[in-house]
Amino acid sequence: MDLLPDIWRQEYWLPPGVTWKDMEQLEDSDRPRPLHLLITLPLALCFVGLRYVFERFFAPPIGICLGVKNRLQVTAAPSPKLESFYMRRSRQPTQSEIVSLMKACGKTQRQIEKWFRHRRNQDRPCQTKKFGEAAWRFSFYLVAFVGGLACLIDRPWFWNNRDCWSKYPVQPMERAHYWYYMLELSFYVSLLLRISVDVKRKDFKEQVIHHLATIFLLSFSYCANYIRIGTLVMLLHDSSDILLESAKMFNYGTGWRKTCDILFVVFTVVFLVTRLVIFPSKIIHTTLVLSMEVFEPFVGYYFFNILLMVLQALHVFWAILILRMVNKFLVGKLEKDVRSDEESEAEQDEEEEDKGEEEDEDCIWERSKDTLNSKLSMLTNSCVLNNLNNHRGSAVDRIRIAQ
């Protein structure tokens, strides 16, 4: 019963020597309250509904302008037994299961494997779905970045990070920063609510960790009045996310390869500079070192910096993937976003196998055409020779009669 009051002990949230009564010096409208965070739940649901409307009515026309087209997929032949196994047991049967399915369905191993491969491809997200998700995130990040920059660019702590801790924690909260926080937090909550139905990417686990860390980071920083440094963290992240989502949008389109490549190069530079240089040297240095000029360490200090370290670890993880993409880009083999365009490498292999099968079928058809052409040629030559012989015979007969 006493656990909830213990959570709000001032030793956890405020520096030594500062109490909750000190925070009451601020006006109610200027003081962050934990209950304010409850507004993020209805706002997150609003974002989910707004996203549905955007992806349904606004993203498709934009996709048509960019030439977004769904790939033609070969549908799996109807098979109740295989469909039941696929839905109830496994999408990728083992070798022993394939043998039992062969006996139950009367099919060969190659036919069973091909059926499951086509069936898995049917469940893969189409290009228009991927484009809709990228367009939605691009729209939000663009609006959030422009709005955040407008309400921060004339603030002293935007240019001098030491001002983030001036008179901390008794710092008045501006209304614009309140809404900047609530909207960003609500957006990430909506992403977490939709993550199970969104395109499942290779870094799915890392994405879940990122969303959870971001939500905890924003929530805690709001309650502890870390709002100044928190707004800088959000602005820094949105700057590169805009370029990432815009590059994806053009990548899903047709005829925008150069534009996509340019955006990818710009995104790579911005990401590496903001996430691997500015974030640790400015943001983490500010919270870890400069803050100690104003107050002594406390529980909230350690918790906040641990969350920042988690984000930095994820930055390094994604930087490695981006550098892999750069390597492919330099050798001229960059075709996909290594991080997020495909669900898994196994499914990429399945596409290649399908293409291989199509090529094999094309080769068989070409050989069949060659054989048929040769037979037709032989038949034609035979007919021509017969006609020539007949004409020659009839000519000889006419000569004889004339004589």
Distance between the termini: 133 Å
What is the approximate shape? elongated
Helix content: over 70%
Structural class: mainly alpha
Helix tally?
Answer: 15
Instruction: Sketch the topology as an H/E string, one letter per element.
Output: HHHHHHHHHHHHHHH
Largest sheet: none
In total, the number of strands is 0
Fraction of residues in β-strands: under 5%
| Uncertain regions spanning at least 5 consecutive residues | 338-349, 358-366
Query: What does the radius of gyration come to?
Result: 32 Å
| Mean model confidence by pLDDT | 83
Task: Describe the protein in words.
The protein has 403 residues and is mostly helical. It has helices at residues 3-7, 10-13, 20-23, 40-65, 80-88, 95-105, 109-123, 127-152, 156-159, 175-194, 204-223, 227-252, 257-288, 299-330, 345-402. Helix 4 packs across helix 8, helix 8 (127-152) packs antiparallel against helix 10 and helix 11 (204-223) packs antiparallel against helix 14 (299-330). The longest helix is centred in the last third of the chain and has 58 residues, at 345-402. It is elongated and about 80 Å long. The relative contact order is 0.10.
Write out key terms for the chains shown.
mainly alpha; single chain; 72% helix; 15 helices
Write the topology of this structure:
Layout: H1 3-7, H2 10-13, H3 20-23, H4 40-65, H5 80-88, H6 95-105, H7 109-123, H8 127-152, H9 156-159, H10 175-194, H11 204-223, H12 227-252, H13 257-288, H14 299-330, H15 345-402
Task: Describe, in short, the structure shown.
This protein has 403 residues and is mostly helical. It has helices at residues 3-7, 10-13, 20-23, 40-65, 80-88, 95-105, 109-123, 127-152, 156-159, 175-194, 204-223, 227-252, 257-288, 299-330, 345-402.
